[in-house]
Specification:
- Helix 11 packs antiparallel against helix 12, helix 15 crosses helix 17 and helix 16 runs antiparallel to helix 17.
- By secondary structure, the chain is of the alpha+beta class.
- It has a 4-stranded mixed sheet with strand order 2-1-3-4.
Amino acid sequence: MKRFVIPIAACVLALPAVRSADSPSAFRALSYDNALRTAQQENKVLLIDFFTTWCGPCKLLDQTTWSDPGVQRLLGKNAIAIRLDAEKEVDLARRFSIRAYPTIVLIKEDGSEMDRLVGYRPAATFTDEFTSDLAGETGEARAREAVAKAASNPGRQLQARLELANQLARVGKNAEALKEYLWLYDVGMKQDPEFSGVRNSFLLDAIHRLSVDYPPAAAELSIRYDAAKRSLFSDSDARSAAFDVAAINRAYHRDDETLKLYDEMSAGDARRAGLGTALFRLFLERRRYAEAAAAQPASRYLVMLDQEISSAAKSITNPVVGDQFKRVIVLWALDEIEALSGAGQASNAQSVADRLRAFDPSPATATAIAARIKKATIPS
């Protein structure tokens, strides 16, 4: 895991996409009440796929998992399956505390929740999880088993404990979830440099989401923010504290507070550089291009760009995922081109643009490159 930039592949499935209008054959056009009644009559579980029309992983779920013949047979035999647009079925989405898409909720005959599966999963994974649920082993039980199995592998252990914490939060076991999250933040991921990016992004976002319904999570994060801020001002070389302060502010949408701290520090201050790394996009928005280029230098960026392009070529086989991966890389490179152009680093901007054109030679990308250069070099 890179320290400064979260790998693009981790973010791909969050991209918007249009969900197919054709309903996979395993699903029925029933309201929630009618579906639950039918499930009771047929002695089956009720499966609800909560989606939105802009959700990329939802579309991928339709194209791969729900369209898989084996999955369709499994659902036909054991479930009454319906799909609900969470932005139309607002009351039901609120009732089931739906905060991410897709969320697949499994309901027992008595109307109580059996389990929930959040996010995209391929057909084989869904089949294993659904079969496990039918046998009485929930997602929490599977997560705990994964933690136990990963005991001898530190990296896998951290991933497994993060998934366990997420699963506990999904089922409302907030105190237990917070305990796991805080161990990961304070101990597990802090001790492993490979997880520094995850610690200051996905983990903090998870704690922030938990704090919406569970105030103790916000209180604990506030304690850590105050401690990091004290460390920031007591040590002139407290780069790690700078990263923590900036990351917590980002999780709570307080980038302006980070920018204020940044502006109060003198040029060349190591702490200022740490804060600046987290402010790249805000620098772009404010047209502070020299600082954006310093936060993400061309020499380092080109290495990371090559790594992401190589990763895409080697690991992305599904065309839907591949297209989304390409879109993320293009947008990421366009930001760098704008920053370098605005900072007067024309040759560096050209190097990134050349690499991007080789990766995506489409006219749309060429037009977008020209537009970003124009935006950065023409006074506002």
